[in-house]
């Protein structure tokens, strides 16, 4: 439920949002000054602002901000009760910007999914998902019921995850489990990138666009603190945050190095595996971050595709023979996904495309022939490029492609 105080606060946040102050940053800034607001009120205000951006193109812009927020909320409530009140044609025309139609073949289920509030996924430390879920409460363990995500086709991959879906309302950052490093907040689609990489203890890996270390932590956890993980980013500030997160998780097998993405690499080391979790237009995150639907553009997509290709080209020579290269982007545009991956394959005959989720890695060899391993006509264990659509996993959209050096 939203009340007039919530709409009032949300309207005040709306006027501060600009191209250089996106909705999530504007909310954070507003809450710094509005110290009297409690957790429940802040959640309601954030949800009201995000709901506004999900339904933006349905709203009567001649009305006041407060009226439009109320209108968006009413649409959200009607849609939540009965999604079929909004016709698929209306979703396709209004839920996402027009320019995306040339870039993304939006499944109608994805369009429905991105109009809902997003689930919160945690990654428990290896093998501790049940314990964590019992401690936090209000949680489902994905490996316990892998078909619980929207699409059972993925169940042979998700069955091997440490993912926990948290449905409660506590501030997880103040729990003892968070301070002990018992979990990370990490979307399920991002967790599947780590699962596709599947580094082994004792190997040498490079997370080239490590950012604040979300995926680096997952890789290091799978390596069980044995071997070396290089983590680089062009942002020194993000690397500093990464170091703090590694300390909290008591993982010590990381070596950080700044890297701006150019041909001048931070090391001459040859790697068993390299992850390029590249900067992207983020269209796969538009459920969680609906304001970005109205700020991203085709120009961004074109520019980012050039950067993505150049990152892949620059690191390809750092693989050992037999080493694996993992390309991931949380976007669904053709230009940044299949176009980048296919052109890279063509330009690098020394690399061969290999399955993103090989069955042995997922402990499901015997299931290879099972119809449950297929999405439509495709066998997900044979796919060398995988799209994870938001409705399939109740998570962000993601694209992953993988190669092996011959
Ligand atoms: C998708 S984010 C990485 C998220 C991170 N891997 C995680 O899981 O939390 C992409 C990262 O690439 C970095 N980046 C952006 N442009 C870059 C470039 N040209 N070269 C290297 N890194 C770049 C950004 O600083 C950002 O941290």
TrEMBL record:
<feature type="binding site">
    <location>
        <position position="277"/>
    </location>
    <ligand>
        <name>S-adenosyl-L-methionine</name>
    </ligand>
</feature>
<comment type="similarity">
    <text>Belongs to the class I-like SAM-binding methyltransferase superfamily. RsmB/NOP family.</text>
</comment>
<keyword id="KW-0489">Methyltransferase</keyword>
<dbReference type="GO" id="GO:0005829">
    <property type="term" value="C:cytosol"/>
</dbReference>
<dbReference type="InterPro" id="IPR023267">
    <property type="entry name" value="RCMT"/>
</dbReference>
<feature type="domain" description="SAM-dependent MTase RsmB/NOP-type">
    <location>
        <begin position="108"/>
        <end position="406"/>
    </location>
</feature>
<feature type="binding site">
    <location>
        <position position="233"/>
    </location>
    <ligand>
        <name>S-adenosyl-L-methionine</name>
    </ligand>
</feature>
<dbReference type="GO" id="GO:0009383">
    <property type="term" value="F:rRNA (cytosine-C5-)-methyltransferase activity"/>
</dbReference>
<dbReference type="GO" id="GO:0003723">
    <property type="term" value="F:RNA binding"/>
</dbReference>
<keyword id="KW-0694">RNA-binding</keyword>
<dbReference type="InterPro" id="IPR001678">
    <property type="entry name" value="MeTrfase_RsmB-F_NOP2_dom"/>
</dbReference>
<dbReference type="InterPro" id="IPR049560">
    <property type="entry name" value="MeTrfase_RsmB-F_NOP2_cat"/>
</dbReference>
<feature type="binding site">
    <location>
        <position position="260"/>
    </location>
    <ligand>
        <name>S-adenosyl-L-methionine</name>
    </ligand>
</feature>
<dbReference type="GO" id="GO:0070475">
    <property type="term" value="P:rRNA base methylation"/>
</dbReference>
<keyword id="KW-0808">Transferase</keyword>
<protein>
    <submittedName>
        <fullName>RNA methyltransferase</fullName>
    </submittedName>
</protein>
<dbReference type="Pfam" id="PF01189">
    <property type="entry name" value="Methyltr_RsmB-F"/>
</dbReference>
<keyword id="KW-0949">S-adenosyl-L-methionine</keyword>
<feature type="active site" description="Nucleophile">
    <location>
        <position position="330"/>
    </location>
</feature>
<dbReference type="InterPro" id="IPR029063">
    <property type="entry name" value="SAM-dependent_MTases_sf"/>
</dbReference>
